[in-house]
Amino acid sequence: MDGSGEMTGDSTRCVHSALDPEVTTGAVHTPIFQTSTYVQNDFADHLGYEYARGDNPTRNALQRALAELESPNQPAHGFCFASGMAAITTISQMLKQGDHVIACDDLYGGTVRLFDQIAARFGIETTYSPLKPGDLSQVIRENSKILWLESPTNPLLTVHDIRTLAAEAKKHGLIVVVDSTFATPILQRPFELGADIIVHSTTKYIGGHSDVIGGCLITQNKELAEKISFLQNAVGAVPAPLDCFLILRGLRTLDLRMTRHCESAHLLAERLQENGKVTRLFYPGLESHPTHEIARKQMNAFGGIISLEVVGGEEGARKFAAKLKLFATAESLGGIESLINHPWTMTHAAIPEKQRYDAGMTPGLIRLSVGIEDMEDLWQDLVNALDCL
Ligand SMILES: Cc1ncc(COP(=O)(O)O)c(C=O)c1O
To answer: Which of 176, 190, 300, 316 has the most neighbouring CB atoms within 10 Å?
Structure first.
C-alpha cells in the first residue's frame, strides 16, 4: 500500500493501483470528494485544486489507477469522462476540418453515429475498412490523422492485428487509437503493440456492475496527454465524483471477474458450437473464429462476449431471448449479470443498414454478455431456450 511492494500480478495491480491512504483521516479508500470548488488561501494560491471540472481527488485516483493498469512499466496519463462516448468525442475534438479518420468497419454503433453524424458536420471524414492485411495502404490519404481500432470488435469480436496495423499507420504519422473496452487492461496491452491512445467505456467490465456510466482515455505520450487534459477541462464532459468512486470500486475486482467471465464464456462457446440450433457462432477463443490466431498471440484470454445466430433468423433470436431466464434482454455488457442484446435493433441500429450488412452483421445476430453466475446454470438456461426453437 505504501508503494514499496512489488506489483507483478494483475490482481495485485487492480487492488493496489492508486490505493493511497487519504491524508486527513487515513481512510483506506479514496473518499467521494463531493465538491464543486476548493477554498484558496489567496488569489490563485491553493492546494492544487481550483475547480472540480478541472480536478477532483476521487477522479484523480481513478485516472491514476487506470493509467497504472494499462501501463505498468512506463508512466502514463489517464483521463476520465462522463461516458465512453464523451471520451471518444474528446478524441474527435483533437481533429480539425479536412482531417480524415480510418476506422475498422465492425465497431460500436455509437462511435459510427458520432463520426458520421457529428464529426462529419465539422468537416471530418471517416473511411471504414475491414483492415485485413494490405487494406490500410488502400485507404490511407495525405490528410489521414487517426487509425481507429476496436479490438475485439462489437459485435463480431474481430481481433485486429494491432502491432502490424499500428506500425504501418505510424509510417504515415497517424495517431493509433484502440478502443479496448471488450478486452480490458487484463486481456490485452495495446501500448505494447503500438497504440498511442487507449479508450475504455468504463461502463462495461471496469465498472463491472451495470450501475454507472463512464469512459476514459489513457496515453503514454506527453503531448497527447496535454491536448486531452486541455479538452477535458475546456469541453467539460467530466464524470461525477460518485461515479468515479463506483468505477474505482469495480476496478478493484476486475482481474477476478475477468477470469470468471472468460472461463465461462469459453466453455459456453465450446458447447454452443456443438448445438444444432446454433447456425453461426463468434467467439475469438474458438479455432473457427476468423481471427483466432491473432487473438491467441495478442490476448491473454478471449473475453466474456459471445455472438451467435440461431435457427429461424430474427424471429428465432426473439424467441430465444424471450425464453432465457438468467440472461436479461438489455443494452450494455461486462456486468456481473448475464445479458442478451440484439445489435440490429439495439446497440447498432444507428448504423445505416447496408453498412451493417457490409460489416457482417445480420438481423438474426444476438450478443451474449456472459456474467459471473455459475456456468452450469447459464448453460442450462441457454439449452432450455435453444430446445424451444
Ligand atoms: C466498444 C465500445 N466503445 C464505446 C462504447 C460507448 O460507451 P458508453 O456507453 O459508456 O458511452 C461502447 C458502448 O457500448 C462500446 O461497446
So the answer is: 190
